[in-house]
Amino acid sequence: xxxxxxxxxxxxxxxxxxxxxxxxxxxxxxxxxxxxxxxxxxxxxxxxxxxxxxxxxxxxxxxxxxxxxxxxxxxxxxxxxxxxxxxxxxxxxxxxxxxxxxxxxxxxxxxxxxxxxxxxxxxxxxxxxxxxxxxxxxxxxxxxxxxxxxxxxxxxxxxxxxxxxxxxxxxxxxxxxxxxxxxxxxxxxxxxxxxxxxxxxxxxxxxxxxxxxxxxxxxxxxxxxxxxxxxxxxxxxxxxxxxxxxxxxxxxxxxxxxxxxxxxxxxxxxxxxxxxxxxxxxxxxxxxxxxxxxxxxxxxxxxxxxxxxxxxxxxxxxxxxxxxxxxxxxxxxxxxxxxxxxxxxxxxxxxxxxxxxxxxxxxxxxxxxxxxxxxxxxxxxxxxxxxxxxxxxxxxxxxxxxxxxxxxxxxxxxxxxxxxxxxxxxxxxxxxxxxxxxxxxxxxxxxxxxxxxxxxxxxxxxxxxxxxxxxxxxxxxxxxxxxxxxxxxxxxxxxxxxxxxxxxxxxxxxxxxxxxxxxxxxxxxxxxxxxxxxxxxxxxxxxxxxxxxxxxxxxxxxx
Amino acid sequence: xxxxxxxxxxxxxxxxxxxxxxxxxxxxxxxxxxxxxxxxxxxxxxxxxxxxxxxxxxxxxxxxxxxxxxxxxxxxxxxxxxxxxxxxxxxxxxxxxxxxxxxxxxxxxxxxxxxxxxxxxxxxxxxxxxxxxxxxxxxxxxxxxxxxxxxxxxxxxxxxxxxxxxxxxxxxxxxxxxxxxxxxxxxxxxxxxxxxxxxxxxxxxxxxxxxxxxxxxxxxxxxxxxxxxxxxxxxx
Lengths: 559, 236
What we know:
The complex is a heterodimer.
Chain A: H1 2-23, H2 37-57, E1 59-61, E2 64-66, H3 71-80, H4 82-98, H5 104-127, H6 137-158, H7 162-221, H8 226-240, E3 244-249, E4 253-258, H9 273-281, E5 285-287, E6 304-314, E7 317-327, H10 334-373, H11 377-393, H12 395-414, E8 419-421, H13 422-440, E9 444-450, E10 458-460, H14 464-475, E11 483-491, E12 496-502, H15 515-529, E13 534-540, E14 544-551
Parallel strand pairs in A: 9-11
Antiparallel strand pairs in A: 1-2, 3-4, 3-7, 5-6, 6-7, 8-10, 11-12, 12-14, 13-14
Helix pairs in contact in A: 1-7, 2-3, 2-4, 3-4, 3-5, 3-6, 3-7, 4-5, 5-6, 6-7, 7-8, 7-10, 10-15, 11-12, 11-13, 12-13, 13-14
Chain B: E1 2-7, H1 11-24, E2 27-33, H2 36-46, E3 50-54, H3 62-66, E4 76-81, H4 87-92, E5 97-100, H5 105-120, E6 134-139, E7 142-147, E8 151-157, E9 160-165, E10 168-172, H6 176-179, E11 185-189, E12 192-195, E13 199-204, E14 210-214, E15 219-222, H7 224-234
């Protein structure tokens, strides 16, 4: 009984050491399944010294030593695998062997075997994807118990004289099996607790990261400028609680929030050497405040001492930086360091996306401008030829056509805004159709049916004209006679519908060819009002072709 | 006087060009046609020396029209167009000239000079019209274009030329001779063309005759005169 209490005392010393040890950062990566060699070596040293200390602290009993040597090798095996267990066990065992006594050999061998037992449990669990079970105190308890049982067996088998060995085992077996098992289990439960604390911190920090991301990405999509940068910096500052947050573009500081805001002024050029290094070498620069200090280039009184500078990349080009600072006396938290890097990565992606989007928009705009500015030369020269023919026969008609032509051309040239009223659009199309009616003479008739209430409706300029031109070019121009174009605008239940219908029905066959104009109009409406609006073509062969423009009702989505 | 035909789908454009041609005093205007089909009829009827041809026309454009004219009736061609997108192409077609609308009388005078030279030398028009790919057929007041690859066979009867396809038969004004310019359609009898791709079976009969079973299930005769040619093409 005294032996149990003594051993328990000894074990408590270990548990305290273990507790202190798990608090240190060296212990952190220990919970992963595959450990880097350096880490393994460190563990080997630690657990070997545990094992050796266990022997030293042991109590001499009948020419042998009752001890807690087993805890080290078994844990080394369970945590680091058979290799580490064996190495630790061998070290502990060799040490015991050198101390002599009639159990020297058997204890040396059994300690090595105990390390192996831990390692086998490791293998068994990781192969079944139960690696987390390694940190279960119950598993460790059972493993150590089994290992100690093995040790007693080995002593009985190898130690001579047998009577002495048997007497020894009778005395020490139970106390050692119990204390070693309980000690190992306690040890592992301490590690496990540390781990779960860290996991919880991880959850909190990723929740924080998500919150920041959610708040800032939307801001960033509105552009990367002083205003958005200031608001983003404020969000990061508030959520992370760091000393200060700065955002710069490639040349100057865009925003600065927190300590030192009095002398880090937006608009000032980027000048700190750390920042320049980060931008030049396109990498994260970290000054922890101890080995590498952040030194403010603006003011000597600057309270900031450590800094994390992450470049913002867009297409492999540095477009700016995000900087997190802590004041001189405060530690720069690893969580914030990881967070800073993650955010910069996220922002870089978002910047790339916005750039892509804006280029796409720009392309669409310029395509459209180009399409608008181009008066179809066929139309123009045919119109002039028509007027030339008519002028000798009907001077009045020719004069009127010249007016329509100049109205059409003027409107085409003048349109600079993005929106026009439906009435204006219809007038534009009317002057176009007047000329085409004269050109095709009896082959074309046009009818309009526009709800007067819709006339003030604002629609994107050049919405009607390309569609009407298509109806003429690919529709009526292909009919030998009897062409008809009907243009109507009506309010439907929850949208406005403008329909341009011709009776040639020849687009169905030519969808590829007439794509450009309609496609652009459609894309632009979707771009402005969203994907539930736009242009749809339908066709009943030899009966009609219909282009339906779907627009929001007045008071619906605004561009 | 040069015997001329004018083709343009726009009435005003026809009037304008007619006025210009008349003003030169060099032309006898045989007809003014609003579309390609009427132009084909007028060409057969009047045998014009020169064709003033609009390019942009409904259903059958100016280029396609050229592919439908019997080669012995082929007149000299002057393209008249509103825009010179086609300039290069018409040059390649070896047309005589092309005019841009609105046509200036001075420019037309140059065309007349060129045309007269050619006619004095008795030069035969050398057009290489594009391959005939779609054949215009009348269907009510519309023109239906039948792709050559859809034709099973062509039959010429007293009532005219009929294209037989899987979707029914169509009447066309093109001649067997023009149709047989298509590499797909081969003459096998005085009154029949067959689509090479649609031949299912050929039976040879005694006396140098034969019979073709087409994919559509029609039996069409092979006459002695065309049998050898057919065998050659099929590599028999």
